[in-house]
Design brief:
The complex is a heterodimer of chains A (167) and B (574). Chain A is an all-alpha fold. Helices cover 72% and strands 0% of the residues of chain A. Chain A has helices spanning 3-29, 32-48, 58-78, 86-89, 101-113, 117-128, 133-140, 144-162. Helices cover 23% and strands 38% of the residues of chain B. Chain B is flat. Classes of the chains: A mainly alpha (167), B alpha+beta (574).
Amino acid sequence: MKYSKRAEIFRQVKADYIDFLSSVLWKLTGDRELFTEAMQYSLLGMWRHVEKLNGRQAGSYIYRIALTANSKAWRNRVGRNSQINESHLGVAESPDEKVTNSELAAKVRQAVAQLPAKQSKAIVMRYFQQQDYSDIALQLNCTQAGVRSHVSRAIATLRNKLAGLTD
Amino acid sequence: MKPDSIEKILNKLGTEDVPPEARQIAQKMSEDFSKTLIRPRQHIFLEYIMKSKITKLAAAAVIIVAVLVGLHFVGNPLAPTVTWAKVIQPILNAQTATLDILIGSQENQHVIHDEVMGSRIRRTFSDVNHSEIIIDLEQQKMLTFEHATKTAVFIELGGLDNFKNYLEELQDLIIRLQDNPDFQVEDRGLQKIEGRDHIVFVAESQKETITIWADPETALPTRIEQKTPNMQIVCDNLQFDVVLDESRFSMKVPDDYTIQNAGIDFRKNNESDFIETLRIWAEIIEDGHFPDSINLEDVVKVGPKFEQGLKRANLTEQQQLKVATRFGQGLVFIRFFKGQGKWHWNGVGVELGDAETPIFWYRPEDSETYRVIYGDLHVEDVAPEGLPEPIPAEETAEASIGYQKWSKSEFVGTQEDLWYIEASGDIGVRSDLTLLKGPEGTNVIPISLPYAGGKLTSVTLDKVAIPFRQMDTGRYELELPLEKLFAGQTKIRCKWTLSLDMLEKVDKVDYGYRTVLKSLIPVVSYRLRVSLAPDSGFEFTKDTSKKWIVPFTFNAPNPHDHFGSCGIQIRKRD
């Protein structure tokens, strides 16, 4: 594809999805620094895969790009081993101590960034965009039961990861 | 945590308002990013800036590239000389040597000058002033001095496999080459270079051709030319046992010099780094398109253009060095290529971002499929028949177990045909035979073309012409040098022609032609590939974008020479 054509598609897709990206990435990161990083990765991802964004599947690819960007940004912060960086998030050293709401929210966001693609997509659509199951099923090209399964497995994974943080 | 806590938190996060600041940041970043679209080379820097880990950087970009290029020859520049015992003897005994290395064609003016003392090398470059490199193979270290900036850069060479000292490497090569039955030396007699007589020897193996010029009186080699699938190297002005001061090889850094690390890790030899190098090459050096070739000689020449590109990009010095390091790191992949066969470049004129055009492909070790990199730098695994161009027979051929005598009266082998259909309706055929077995006491092998009207035009055994004579229409006899067969040279290439008119035209829409399937001799495997000349006026019916197809393959434990017939589904282009 010619460079000029790629640039044209990119500009159009960006105009169509910039609000969506702002909203989703903010909710996924909740932090200016992370948000900036994830947004940068998203723009780069959009440019690199711009050929795929020129059609009906664009929305689906944008989701993928945004979630990948979010994971990358979190990974940069906490390291490749995906271990929760206690010091960075300021979690209390003693397991008995309660973490604050904002710290807990950061923990949850970080754990969402580590979910498998379909599960994180389902969580974003269900909770961050407040979509109902039938709409999500349509977008994920699966049944409503399938969506419920993704969501419940994601919740179970998050619960396991975050077990013991708070009551 | 209570069972419903996670869902509550998620719900809460989902219903939080997005602050106006976030939207402003997104809008600003988006606008900034769009501005860079005018100059595609900018994107790579955005990505670098995003990477938080800062590599320790040292010398200027050109030096880093030059070091990497030079490394290719470490331990090896004199290696080709070893094919002739008389010629190599002085080399083995030499304590010191000096030589010039030229990469690529003779027109290339970029010369690497080496002074060698045991396991240490002092290296300078004709087009890089005020810089020198000291390599200590025993210590596995390299030190680059950039005198203009009073900088010294250390590079660890520990990541490179089989790193030996200079003379050990030569001795190993002598043994390896002498033990290789595939390696053969041809005496070309006396030739003149710059008015002086030289004895010339040409030695060939499957993967390389080496030409050695030596002084006829002293038997000292003065020039060595080495051709491998992906490059050509010339070692010129060779001199042995010259007096060299040991201080020239010192790795002591003057007190007022800054010492840094290069940031290139030779243990990293992977495809993703190479892809980044391609991206930089297209974005920075070539302004949005890929280079015509990426051979070693191109890397040698790229220095000044790279510097200009970096300046054009308005980068800080730190950013320039980052880019240069990334560029150099990716070159490790092709300079120390570990795939099977050779790599293939097809990036001429391709724009960065072109997702349709393959620019590079190679076969990883122990892989049945090829890795194909496209113009937008995405990578796909592709079966050999799906490649943009046919792979040369010598690259796909299995290792032969060698030629053996047997009690039967026929020769047996394997055959791979490439039929090339031209605009005139002529078909040029290249039949690659690998002989496996033959009768005792004869060196005459009868072959029979599938069509009586076909005409044999040439026969070579490992690139050397062998005699043949016509016995009848479409039937020939070849005279084989048995000693070469038993020495392991078993690949015979027969070139012959036929006409499309000889094939059966099939009276069905879009069907094309039908050909008989017959091998030249009885074979245990046969493969037919068909390719169309770009101006042939034909296209393949099933997939018009394909440049070649494999309409038939055969494999069996017992030899056959007739396989029936098959269709060649081509049609005239509209």
